Structures are given as structure tokens and as C-alpha cells.
Amino acid sequence: MRDKLKILFLCTGNSCRSQMAEGWTRHLQGDTLEAYSAGVVAKGLNPNAIKVMQEAGVDITSQQSQTMQQIIDLGIEPDIVVTVCQHAHENCPVFPAKARIVHHGFDDPPLLAENEPDPEIALGHYRRVRDEIKAFAQGLPDNLGT
């Protein structure tokens, strides 16, 4: 039996996009992929990310916001690191030689929603990005060229 491909989703704060990517990948591809997420810093789980993922039937509340260094310290050696924002892509750490870095950026829902007075419109940004990440996760690992 072949080991599961380990994939790490990396973003700035490990609060929203990378958490949704980890959740979708575990939910949709858990039989073939081992998903993790981390950030350049750990900001905690974004409540709106939790909410829109629950709307889609995926519970990410058991996931933890952690830094890339914590992943390294845990001895997790990803096969592929997917940076989901430009800042993380530019600040990606050096992982073991086998890790391949792939960039696939997604819009930042908290940034898009921060000045939106209507909560439903604000959540719309989270829902759109959630659905884009779902589509990306459904195509794994083929859309990474593995």
C-alpha cells in the first residue's frame, strides 16, 4: 500500500484560506491525501471561515492554527507545499529536499470583507473563496502536476 501524499497548505496567518484548504482536502481526498495547514504566523481560526465551512458540511473546528515552524518541529515532512497567498509564497521556509513548492493563490476573504457593513455581503466573500478552494481540492493531486 502506497503512503498518502502529504500536502501542506501555507498562508500568512493560518486562519482562513489554508484552514479551508486543509478542511476540504481532508473531507474530499482524505483516502489518498494527508492534509495539513500552517501560516507564517498563527492567528487562530477565523470564525467566518468556520461558519461558511459548516454551511458546506465541513467542520474545521478541530483544526489548529499553527506556524510553519511548528509543522517542521512536529516532524511532518510534506511532499508538496501549496502556498495559497503571495506573502506565504515569498516567505516560504526551506523544507526537506523532497518537498515541492507550488503556488495557487486565493483572494483573502477577511481583507475583502473588512469594510463591508452588511454581514451577508461580507460572508459572500468567504463563501466564494470557500467554493473556489473546494474546486481546487476536488482536483488534487492532478492539478499540481504530481
UniProtKB/TrEMBL annotation:
Keywords: Arsenical resistance, Transferase. Gene3D superfamilies: 3.40.50.2300. The keyword Transferase applies. Its EC number is 2.8.4.2. It holds the Pfam family LMWPc. SMART domains: LMWPc (SM00226). It comes from Mucisphaera calidilacus. InterPro entries: Ptyr_pPase (IPR023485), Ptyr_pPase_sf (IPR036196). Residues 5-143 form the Phosphotyrosine protein phosphatase I domain. It is an enzyme of class 2 (transferase). One of its GO terms (molecular function) is mycothiol-arsenate ligase activity. This is Arsenate-mycothiol transferase ArsC2. GO terms for biological process: response to arsenic-containing substance. The lineage of its organism: Bacteria, Pseudomonadati, Planctomycetota, Phycisphaerae, Phycisphaerales. SUPFAM superfamilies: Phosphotyrosine protein phosphatases I.
